[in-house]
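Quick illustration, no need to memorize.
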Amino acid sequence: MRHFFLHGRWFRLLAGMLMGMLSVAPVRASVELIVPAYFYPAGEGLAHWNALNLAAARVGLNVILNVDSGPGKSVDPNYQVAVQALRAAGGRVFGYLHTSWGKRDAALLKKDIDAYLQRYPVDGFFIDEMASGPEALDYYAGLYDYIKAREQALLVIGNPGVVADPAYLQRPVVDVLMHFEGDGETHARQRFPEPDKGVQGRLGEIVHGVTEPQMEALVAEAGRRGLGMLYLTDDLMPNPYDVLPRYWQREVALVAAMAVPAPGSFSLLCAGVVGWLASRRKGGPA
C-alpha cells in the first residue's frame, strides 16, 4: 500500500488548523427555556408535564413549581412525582416564592424556602413580585444569602418583570434576573438597554399573547440580546400559564437549534485526524 506522509511546515499548518477548529468559541450564547408550569400534574395538566419531560432531553429547561402561591400546606404526591420525573429527564425545578414587592415578611419566605427543600428536590427558587429599585436591595440580599446558606448550588431567579437597578445582578441579589414579564404588544414597544458583557446570559424574559411568527422572531434575536432564559406563549390573561403554547414543539426546536454544542462527533473527528497525523510522523501503520 502506498504511504502518504506530511512533513515539516505542511504538517504543522494542517495540525494547527484542525486544533484551531477545536478551540473556536461558539458565535451565539445558549438560551434556555423557563416555564411557569401553573397546571396541575393530573388529568389534562399531566399531558403538559409529560411534554416538559420530553423537551428536557432537547433543551435547557427550567420549570417553575407553584403548588399554591408557594409550597402549600403539605406535600402533594402528584407534584412530587412530576418534579422527580422532570429532573430525571434533565430539567431543573424552581420553587415559586412571592414577595409582594419587598413587603412580605421575610420570616414567612424563609419558612416557604425550608418547606420546599423538605418536600421537593428543587434546584433553586423563582422569586416573584420582586421590587426593582435600590431601596429593596437589602431585603432581597437577605433572601439570597439565606438560600445560598442552605445550599450554595441553589439558583436564585428574580422576577421584577421590568428593567431593574443594575445592583440586583452586581451585588449579587439574584443569579438570573427576569427583566420583562408581560404581553407581546408591550414587549414590542419596550426599549431595553444594550446588554453589558458582565450580565450576558443572566437576563430573562417571559412574554405571553405572542403569535407563532412573533415567537420565531423573538427566539432568533434572544442570543444577540444577551438573554439566558426565555418563555414565549400564545396563552392569554388572566392566567397565561395554565397550558403550554400551541406552538410548544416549534419553540423547543428553535431553542434547541441555538444551543451551544458540547464537543461531539466533529470535534472528535478533528482530534482523531490530528492524532493520525502524529502517528504518521512517527511511522505508525497506515
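The radius of gyration is 23 Å.
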